[in-house]
Amino acid sequence: MLTPKTEEAVAEAVRGAIAKKLPLAIQGGGTRKGLGRPVQAGDMLSLEKLAGVTLHEPAEMVISALAGTPLSVVEKTLASKGQMLPFEPMDHRAIFGTSGEPTIGAVVAANVSGPRRVVVGACRDHLIGVRFVNGAGEIIKSGGRVMKNVTGLDLVKLQAGAHGTLGVLTEVTFKVLPRPEASASMVFDGLPDGEAVAAMSAALGSPFEVSGAAHLPAGVAGESAQTLLRFENFTASIDYRFKALAAMLKRFGNPRRIDGSASEKLWVDIRDCQLLATPRETALWRLSVKPSDAPRVADIIRNGLTDAKLFYDWGGGLIWLATASVKDAGATVIRAAVKGKGHATLVRASDSIRISVPVFEPESAPVAMLSRRIKSSFDPAGLINPGRMIAEA
Amino acid sequence: MTAILFPEPRADVLARRDFIIDGLSKLVGPSSLVTSEDERRAFETDAFTAYRRMPLAVVLPTTTEEVSRVLAFCHQHAVPVVPRGAGTSLCGGAIPQEDAVVIGLSKMSRILDINYPDRLATVQIGVTNLAITNAVSAEGFFYAPDPSSQLACTIGGNIAMNSGGAHCLKYGVTTNNILGVTLVLVDGTICQIGGEAMDAAGLDLLGLVCGSEGQLGIMTEAIVRILPAAEGARPVLFGFETSEKAGEAVAAIIAAGIVPVAMEFMDKPAIEICEAFAKAGYPMDVDALLIIEVEGSEAEMEATLAKIVEIAKKHGVKRIKESKSAMETAAIWKGRKSAFGATGRIADYICMDGTIPTGQLPYVLRRIDEIVKHYGLRVANVFHAGDGNLHPLILYNVNDPTEAMKAEEAGNDILKLCVEVGGCLTGEHGVGIEKRDLMIHQFNPADLAQQLRVRAAFDADWILNPAKVFPLEGRTA
């Protein structure tokens, strides 16, 4: 295991891999090591020792950190000045049963976002700068520390969600937001999926700045279905908006209100997929569809896979789905259900299933060709996380 | 001005002009092909008017398939292509070259589908920015990025440049507000990048295409996010005796956990120019003006404004003027958004677009003043204070070649200053031809080579908008 402490040492490690023609698997804190396709590598490169917040300017709403910085350190640094990462990154430890500390570099590599994503955008939307070492062992920068920057090709977005296949991230910079003063949840009980998505769409299309919209069908968190809408703001605003939105949504029933830490815990459970985390033997999928298609997609999957269990986040735009870990873990049924409507990612399954079933949605021929050429433009010899996203040709 | 070089037109392409026009005439209808010199003249420049080049021919396709056929033809015959929306680029992004075919997307301007429950709209690429908002405003929605040229500029140009606007402090820029595009690759292949779902599968090609200045392919359709409009919005004018005090107030507002939907700055020359044009009621006895807009219900706007006023008072605000009506609000924004046009009435100008860390504002404003004075010119400053995106307008006389050259040199010095203090060359206008040769100040050779290799993954033969973005020397990839 290589554990470079500086960016230059990362570059040396990559140049060493080039000399030895030995591919590298890239790791942060190791809490997401089941994510993506298994990598066949000669050596492991861990970023854990390349850590530290390098810049935090509260008045400019910007923070930079080395890739191996624990996410908790970034969040604490921001919280000390009343700020936060807006995209609410998920913690994967619950679903993978891993220990250790999630790192900020891995948050970027996997474009990890949480419930607030539906309104404020994903990790990639708040990432404004990256530094990385490409597969030729060169240190490259893109973007910077200012939030408006259109200078040159945007390699920043490209690195977010590339799962470390386009180089080894060494430093990342985000624009951030103030932490809200308070939060509360509006809960409707017993809505069927179609009604729930309609209620969430109405709420998200209202001016009342709902910052989370999730639906937990019956049996996921209690016997009755729950539809949750979150408010985050100054306390007076929350009171006003709760009343105004409840009046607007009265055709869906009389909602309950949950405040403070009880409300916060609900959204952490949704964010981290605690509701489907166990039993760990099941496979876990994330489906991205447009909200109005979500209930129909869910019905098709439930008909085809009788043991499927699921819930909705992002107003219906994200479906978390647990299936039995047998054969293709439901891939045939699931990919047919989302065909033309969105895509499905196999987040958790055994190595053998993740080798035989495409983890990421198969791409159209022209997009697959572009992806291959882009990978090779960063990593011509295919030495960085080879095969993490697609099987090597 | 002659400082910015164009690549030498390729004699072999010019020699084949008749053959090329004949080939294009078989691919599109006669009303979609512009060949006469008089009609081509309308396409020889954009809003960066100091430079112009007459294109070989102009094609105005009406369908994705036509774009595909034209690109395949040009690719096969090694003819450069320059894509064009409404031609409002301030950096010369749509300026052609003599050996290029312009593909103008202005005829593809229909809104194809509006989906309120999923908060998205599917549009043809030549639709104007404001037409999208106008189409959805009756239902209480809007398309968020609002460049000052929004009445004329197309969504295609916005995506190509990753345009911003006054309200991106809260709502983000173009890349944060689009979900997918139909992209025609240089060989004519049509592909869908992204889609109606919130996250796309695989690599974030949409993020790469956004801001790629027409060098990776030609877009024909887009899926954009539409957002619910706030219950109300109110701009308030804050006049300060010095730019430093205004800058300190901006920093203090953000540090207090308040993110107004917009915070716009004008210095005294800009205030005078804009007030003369828009009669917006701007205070004339201050050296710096902030337009701060808040959103929400009446009570929420009151509460937020009270906090902002308290902070502004701590920083010595001299005048506070709140909009009392929709008409006043419109006048306040008209003044700001017509800043470039109003400046154009009194002088020629070049508009800079660098971004700086906002903490550097007082220092950078002082240095801009010194730089422009050094060249014997005048400057008016309007900019997005919340995000540090500056727009110094350097005033000069376009008919005086010496002065024109000085204006360009002053602009270059200002942009180098932006990079020096930790910012960048362009925040929302793009590189185009204007800032192409300054790229070496922001990026080292390895950074640029990496970008060039990514570009080559889409267009290895330099067919697409080839005179732009990357310095002409050292194009090895």
Give a topology summary:
The complex is a heterodimer of chains A (393) and B (477).
Chain A: H1 7-20, E1 24-27, E2 43-46, E3 53-57, E4 62-66, H2 71-79, E5 83-84, H3 93-96, H4 104-109, H5 117-120, H6 123-126, E6 127-133, E7 139-143, H7 155-159, E8 168-175, E9 177-178, E10 182-189, H8 193-204, E11 210-216, E12 226-233, H9 235-248, E13 256-259, H10 260-271, E14 283-289, H11 294-304, E15 309-313, E16 318-323, H12 331-338, E17 342-348, H13 351-356, H14 365-378
Helix pairs in contact in A: 11-12
Chain B: H1 11-15, H2 17-25, E1 33-34, H3 37-40, E2 57-59, H4 64-76, E3 81-84, E4 101-104, E5 111-115, E6 120-124, H5 129-136, E7 141-142, H6 155-161, H7 168-171, E8 178-184, E9 190-194, H8 205-209, E10 218-225, E11 227-228, E12 233-240, H9 243-255, E13 262-267, H10 268-278, E14 288-295, H11 298-314, E15 319-322, H12 326-337, H13 339-346, E16 348-351, H14 361-374, E17 378-384, E18 389-396, H15 401-420, H16 439-442, H17 445-456
Parallel strand pairs in B: 2-4, 3-4
Antiparallel strand pairs in B: 1-2, 5-6, 6-10, 7-11, 8-9, 8-10, 12-14, 12-15, 13-14, 13-17, 16-18, 17-18
Helix pairs in contact in B: 9-11, 10-12, 10-13, 12-13, 14-15
Output the strand order for the largest sheet of chain B. Answer: 15-12-14-13-17-18-16
Largest interface: A-B, 82 and 90 residues
Q: How big a fraction of the residues of chain B is strand?
A: 15-25%
Strand order of the largest sheet of chain A: 3-4-8-6-7
Mean pLDDT of chain A comes to: 96
> If helices are DSSP runs of H or I spanning 4 or more residues, what is the number of helices of chain A?
14
Strand content of chain A: 15-25%
Q: What shape does the CA trace of chain A take?
A: globular
| Structural class label of chain A | alpha+beta
The first-level CATH class of the largest domain in chain B is given as Alpha Beta
Q: What's the mean pLDDT score of chain B?
A: 94
- Computed Rg of chain B: 23 Å
The helix content of chain A is 25-40%
**Shape annotation of chain B:** globular
Kindly state the percentage of residues in helix of chain B. 25-40%
